[in-house]
Input
Amino acid sequence: MKTPPLLLGAALLFWGFEAGLLPLVAALGVALEASRFVRWRWDAGLKEFSRISDVCAVLLAALTVYLYVTRPAQAAFINLVRLVPLLVFPVVLAQAFSVRGAVDAAALFATLRRRGAAAGAGSGTFLDVSRPFLALCVLAAAAVNVRTPVFYAGMFLLFSWLLWPLRPRYARSYVWVLLLALAGLLGYAGQAGLHNLQILLEARLPMLVFGSGEMPSDPYLSHTAIGQLGVIKQSGDIMLRVQRPAGGQTPRLLREASYDSYRSGEWRAREAAFSWVPPSAAGEGWAVSGGKSPEKFLIYARFPKGKGLLALPAGARAVSRLPAAEVSLNRLGAVRADGAPGRAVYEVAWDPSSGPSRDSPPGPGDLALPAEEAALVRRIAGELGLGRLPPGKALPALGNYFSRDFQYSLYQAEGGGGVSPVARFLTRTRRGHCEFFGTASVLLLRAAGIPARYAVGYSVQEYSRLQKAFLVRQRHSHAWALAYVDGAWRDVDNTPASWFEEEASRAAAMEPLGDIWSWLVYKFSTLRFELPASGGRRAAWLLAALAAFFVLKGAYRIFKSGLSGRGIAPGAAPEVQGLDSELYAVEKALAGAGLGRRSWEPMRAWARRVGESGAGSTGAAELERLAALHSRLRFDPAGLPAPEREALRAGARDWLLKRRAEKRSQP
Amino acid sequence: MDNIRCFALRTAHTLRHWLRSRWTSPGRLALGALAAAAVLGMDTHSSMAYQAFTFLLAAVLISLVAARGFRPRLEAVRALPRFGTAGEPIPYRVRVRNLGAAVLRDISLAERLPDPAPTYKEFRLADAPAGRLHWLDRLAGWSRWRRFVERRPAGGSEGAVLPDLPPGGSAEVSLQLLPPRRGVIRLEAVSASRPDPLGLATAERLVATRASVIVLPRRYPVSRLSLPGGRKYQQGGVALASSVGESMEFSTLRDYKPGDPPRRIHWKSFARTGRLIVKENHDEYFVRHALVLDTFTGPGASEAVFEEAVSVTASFACTVLTQESLLDLLFVGAEAYHFTAGRGLGGAGRMLEILAAVQPCNDKPFEELSRSVAMRYRLVSGCILVLVAWDDARRALTRQLRALGVPLQTFLVRDPASGSALPGSGEGVRVLETGRIAEGLANI
Output
């Protein structure tokens, strides 16, 4: 069944209108619809369609590579869909003007083509590509994303146009119209509902937007493992790679988010809405705080679903080279990127001597204590005399308290007893992981009247010589306190230094293998960021390498088929029996003398005719004998026994030598 | 691994069947576009594909609901032949009557064939097609699955469109079965289908009508076979061959000897003489051949080889039975079977029916067949052995038969790509290669 007249042209125009390519697409539409008025047809077979589809496939592959290396993955996919109708158009046009009006499936699918080649034919299945092309035009128009009602109306009209001639005879026209109108109304209401639902979910459930467990930090809420009994297990998955320039400094802590309100093992960020950060004038990056930035380093990070919080050091000033659509910042110093590729590299300009500088000044919330722990932490702060010390001395005193009396442990043995986990940590167990130390530090500082916040992120300590970068694993995720001292925020990390060794001792035995795989993925994915940065030169190299690969592969196939065709492999018979007969060389030699075999003439009849003509005087009887052997070689199912095969070979060679000698002797 | 493959392929098979039987061509296009729009429109901010998704979803759901209103009352009667041949279409007619009160239009009639999907056990035993397979194909097992499905007796069928049927009216349409393999096709129902008013979904109703057709093995042309060896004395004589009862030619009377059957006592002479006298008949001599089919394919053996061996046996059965001789078909299935045909004892048709149902035997040793053949060697003038493999047990059987003086024609059906063992040139075995069987038989 064909598409109704002018429908394909209309679909093309619809796509062209949405994509802003109307003049070009109008020309294509006219060319396509001209097939209904032009009688000329092209007798294209499998070979011709295969060539066209191969060219389209190569163009598609090249465009995919180009879009992938120049855009984030999601944007690359959408852009690809936008342009696909243009790439497959040659196949549709060839079908429209072909005699058969359909494309052999073998021309479109390599597996079928291979199978067909083995059987010496096509797949036997013919496809009409016009309807899939129609759907492709509509999807491509959708991918252009012009947010007007024109898209819905156009799609509805095209669909109705396609279905109208195909409606069953028994169905009355008004029933058909009513049902389709109902589908149109339901679809329209549904699309509005779907879009609103997504907006609602994004606003209400940020976790859904940020999604998976790969995302360690939620900018609004941090569930700690405080209160959890047993051993806390964390994996060795590499979350970040930090590359510093030679001689540069490496930040020890990379913060993703900070929180200001604690209750029952949960830290929350109140009134921490993100605000958009304008890109720099040159459009190369985003300034997240003011001040000088003498140092730079690179971070390679993952952005599940294209979104994530940036891990930044305390003195971060600006973020650049990040292929993100948008960067935003909240008052607690969390920096969020949207529209980034799944894996990306960004450059951080920072001042190692500066403390956290992108955080808002403290408010009353930064001194608030949870009711459950308030009395205890005030008592301990009083015992330590923190409140009486100037803030500059209170911090080392607190550090000494933790380093003297506390130990790092990932194991919590006891629980309950009507005491909160933090209280138990401070009074009984005196053992815990970084979240205990960070939370206790914040609460004690607040009890001493020093504004404090709770920060989460990563500790940077493990250097890989192989990868020439610091590896930051999931088990290096860390928590610490931020204290506001002398008019500036400072990182206060009171977790005992032994924590890193303790964590490292729990590394899995197979971790090095996982690291190598992760490194290979990293090398591959960084290609796409290095390529555009090199001004397209590397992209050209990559495309050239791809082209060379396909050329070499093609050459190998031709070489391989040549080998089997010549029958060099011992015992390998040619595909069609007897085509390797040497008598063809004799026939060719005589054709040059005007004694060629006619297309309908069997070899033996030709040999007899040559003999009777007297023109090919060289061994007429011998020629007939050779023709008899040749016929057996070609058509005897049992083939020609080896001695006779050899006789044919030798006979033909001798005949040609004699003929050459005769020609030379003629004046 | 095979159970995961089988599950995945079965799911894909069910999905494919559902798409083909429950959706029209525009409906399948709408479903494809719906899936593509679902992927593209996942994020409603980045494209308008979610609008296409909701519209297509609404259209598809409306079609599905509208299709549920199709409940025709039909009666169908098939005029189906008893036999067909593997690889050849079986045309037949179906008379359909409208028992309802409304005119029926746009109804398509098709045969509802049994589900060809293999069970896990069948899939595990199915052999992969010869030649190199794509690595993905090897991994997924698609070719194995397809090959199995294509080789089921009920391979495919061609439907027909019914003319408009007024209430009480009837019409006759031609349908066609396309059996690729021998066996029995049991048909349970024909399906009447009609697209929904939007033309996307297909409403289907089954009309129960049972029938079966036997698909006989494919046969190859075989020239008249000349097996050396004379006629053999056949106890029971012509009676065995052509009719039931005593119709033998009388020869003489003699005294009773212990061991003579009592029914041969001549009671009139006994009454006259008082001695037990028996009557003797002329001996009967017929040409009687044994046609032996090797069903011992062994685990992992090629199904194609076995099918070709059955076809070769069927070809000999047809050829030998046109000659004036008896033919014993011997093979081992659940037990050792022995069927005799020729000279009025049932023709080639009966033997082909048996061959249509023969199955490989993998739970008994080849010696079962050797024993069955050796027990009958005195009766047969010659023996045709159709083997599916070559090993010591088979070599021993051919040597034993030759040693017993039974003229022998041995054929080994072999897959050239399998690399299985070949008999030596002096062992008198003709090798027939799969794919070139007709050529091989023509050279006999």
Summary: Residues 78 and 94 of chain B are 4 Å apart (CA to CA). Chain B touches chain A through 44 residues (CB under 8 Å). Chain B is about 35% helix and 25% strand. The first helix of chain B runs from residue 2 to 22.
